Amino acid sequence: MVEDNFYFCHPIIKRIIKKTIITNMSSQKSSTDLSRFFAGMVILLALVIGHLIFYLVLGDKANFDAEGHPKAGSFLGVMYKGGFIVPILLALFITIITIGIERFITIQRAKGKGSIEAFVRKIKGYLASGKIDEAIIECDKQQGSLANVMRCGLGRYKEVHNDSSYDFNAKEAAIMKELEEATALELPMLGKNLSILSTSASIGTLIGLIGTVVGMIRAFAALAVAGQPDTAALATGISEALVNTMVGIISSTFAIILYNFFSTKIDALTYSMDEAGFSIMQTLKSKG
């Protein structure tokens, strides 16, 4: 229970800590709800924009001849002949690009100011020299996820280092717990909406294949006409098959690239957090 962990605190301090925990939990819930709302709005708007592009841009009369066939060299007209799956694939592509931009901005902010490698080296130097206050000030300046984790760990280190009521193991456990809790608060923010990219990578090709199958069915239906095959219907069916395949593959490719790119960035930040925590623990051991 929460009360068991604070039995040694003054009642006023206990209430402050409880209020802080409740505030953090409420903040996390609010952030999660906001993220879900953002993702939902992106998908909804992408569907609207996808259909507008399909009917107003791809379906523009300027892309077709008098008989309704795409003009020679009119790729937009050919895409329009891809059928009802095309606006869905366009919406998927728009969603992938939007989420990619949002994740890029978020992760760039999470990296904080300046180089992470330089920041870690500077913090290690302060720790080696026993300059804890200077390290904390540097964390406040850096303002990234790594700095937030380091700030919490250093603050806890400063509290327990000269506290005679803690033995070495208790100090180590207290600092490790603080680092783990701080990391647990930062990582969900970094990984939000990546599930949309991973899902898009999986379903993009599948949705394209649905359009491909529908197009091939129409193409073979045109060939099955007795006598002279309907060449216009045959061409439309083949166009639908190929366009949907192309857009589906492009969407999945972008989703895979962005997902792997952001996963690598997050892994690098996580590694830096672990490395920084290790540096704090080494400092604690060296100071005894």
Descriptors:
288 residues, mainly alpha, single chain
Short description:
82% of the residues lie in helices and 0% in strands. It has 288 residues and is an all-alpha fold.
Please tell me about this protein's structure.
The chain is an all-alpha fold and 288 residues long. It has one domain (2-287). The protein has helices at residues 2-5, 11-58, 75-80, 85-110, 116-128, 132-142, 145-161, 168-191, 194-223, 231-287. The radius of gyration is 28 Å and the shape is rod-shaped. The model is unreliable at 1-10 and 16-29 (pLDDT under 50).
**Strand segment count:** 0
Distance between the termini: 31 Å
The poorly predicted ranges are 1-10, 16-29
What's the domain count? 1
What's the helix count? 10
Protein structure class = mainly alpha
> What is the mean predicted local confidence, pLDDT?
79
How is the secondary structure organized here?
Elements: H1 2-5, H2 11-58, H3 75-80, H4 85-110, H5 116-128, H6 132-142, H7 145-161, H8 168-191, H9 194-223, H10 231-287
